[in-house]
Amino acid sequence: MSRNSKDTIGNKREARVKSKQGTNSASPYEGKMREGRGGETHQISTAHNATLTSQQGVPVADDQNSLKAGKRGPTLMEDHLMREKIFHFDHERIPERVVHARGYGARGYFELTDPVPELSRADLFQRKGEKTPVFCRFSTVAGSKGSPDLARDVRGFAVKFYTNEGNWDLVGNNIPVFFIQDAIKFPDLIHSVKPAPDRGFPQAQSAHDNFWDFISLMPESIHMALWVMSDRAIPRSFRFMEGFGVHTFRLVNKKGKSHFVKFHWKPKQGLQSVVWDEAVKINGADPDFHRRDLWAAIDSGDYPEWELGVQVFDDDFAEDFEFDILDPTKLIPEEQVPVRKVGRMVLNENVDNFFAETEQVAFCTQNIVPGIDFSNDPLLQGRNFSYLDTQLKRLGSPNFTHIPVNAPRCPIRHFQQDGHMAMQNPTGRANYEPNSWGEDGGPRENPDKGFVSYDASVEGEKVRARSESFDDHYSQARQFYISQTAIEQRHIVSAFAFELSKVERMEIRERVVSHLRNVDKGLATEVAKALGLARLPKAAKPARKPLDSLPASDALSILKNGPDDFAGRKLGIYITEGGDAAIVEALEKAAKKKGVMSEIVAPYVAGVTLSDGHVKQADQMINGAPSVLYDFVAIVFGDGTAADLAADKPSRDFVSDAWAHCKFIGYTQPAEPLLDAGDIIGTDCPGLVKIGAGKDAAKLFSEAEGLRCWERFS
Ligand code: HDE
Prior knowledge:
binds CIS-heme D hydroxychlorin gamma-spirolactone 17R, 18S, alpha/beta, 20 helices
């Protein structure tokens, strides 16, 4: 039988399966689940007032009391309903991810805007305007599932594309480089940053001896350390950060020709981060700040969007580039290889159930599709082993691909079977290949359509070694540092000083500074000064002399890539009794027009009576809504109300924090005593906008377009 005829049989079989299911759903299993036939998933009814049942479907008469021998007697073992309920509760938790445990996901789609068939045969890159469903999960790395969102940390940026030819997982971060060059060091890196094994703390923090001990002994991590000490590690929201595939991958076209590629996600909303003092306070005020932000934006229809870009290069470029393109501690500056935008991702649906989707989603770097391939990056090669392994541990069965969030949305036909919780059970007699069952013989391989690995030539001795081409550890760290604005450089210095101030052993602090000397002497001097070191430590001996010729790259700065307007940001309007109703209304209207979310803050959550006599309900009480939760604030007070509030700590902090964090502050004249109490010196300072009447509201918005008033930063 020819291979082609086998394929025809496969297609016929698929058609039969579909018609049996009575649905033209993309996934054969989806149809089965809807039918709810024996042996397949049952759906839990959420209908209002439906009768409560046990897991076995037995109606429950009393869910308040366990079965006892007499009202005051012992509980009986016979109580099958209580035992089932508690048994299930006892097993609710699955192991949290060993890294990236804290995360938040959403559904959406990827739309191809610029097809690239000449680069890749991947089905999702062929037809302009075609949409591919995606699931995207953002995360922090070090903290446990319940840790706060604003930890200083790398953010995971993982996207599962449900393509017509299988799932492609792009499991990236919001930082384009990584700490280590070889997968074998990953457990050490993660152990060092997680709570120390003897004391079980600190949680979700890198400011401790173990982490900096490891970093200072692994010079390859210094480039990434600079990124993590920059504001990239304290993003304002998942919506305002970039994403990177980090490793070099391959794109392979129909003819089998390959190009190297690095993947980029660019947020349409622009880049934005918070400042460290703000991050610390947000963690207290709202530990769910990032997940709430994403959920609220999607819930309100303000769908976040990213462009997918590719940096494509060939072997010649790889040969000439200053660094090894397989070294994941290096990036390729966008000025050297521009990012070509090929499509956009829109996140437009929140999950219905956090556990079902965000917790159970199982990303695997090995999930690639025809037209995309791996490079020999040793970190990527190690990851390809790790992710499948971790999903088995976490989800408990090789059938984790049967869980809807992980299931491909294209036809699946194979002979893999059984195992725990098998939901997709093939029908028919043949469960092996080759077989001679003709039409009932099941699927066949297809050399034309199927995945073929790029036939890169490989030769070499079996060695445990690292290539000398990975030896430069400082040049790109320096390039990153000199690409930052003065404000961003100051933040990096403060972050190093803060983190190292929490390190107890002096030699670790000094060892870190000795590496910084190879990055930038000014940076090392500033950090040493901030730490109060008696002398500047000698520079660490580099494996290879760093280059100081790499030019600054604007693409590496957040502030040089901020948004053009305020869309997607949040305004806090603090009002008191008698506040000017026209101004409040004008602010709310202007916010809506600009795509800004606004919230009313008041001394009482029940609200206050404004100047026109109507009661304005509040969204938040001042004690629960510090200004760190907003991008800019307006204070619209009624006559005489500021004097009392000037003695109120949350009210004073509201303005003094907004001031210290360089936020724009709109205010009405009656609010001036509070500004004085909040240590705001003089009302003619930059970033303070006096609002005399409703028509001035627009002024606050136009002034505040720069997001922060950095002139105030000192
Ligand atoms: Fe991961 N990583 N990682 N990682 N990683 C996991 O898989 C691992 C690395 C990244 O939202 C784990 O499902 C090894 C780089 C993200 O569910 C685990 C190495 C990058 C996520 C794992 C790395 C990442 C993970 C834990 C070094 C950026 C969260 C739970 C060789 C390019 C995905 C899980 C989600 C998750 C292993 C390095 C990104 C254990 C061994 C580099 C975004 O498999």
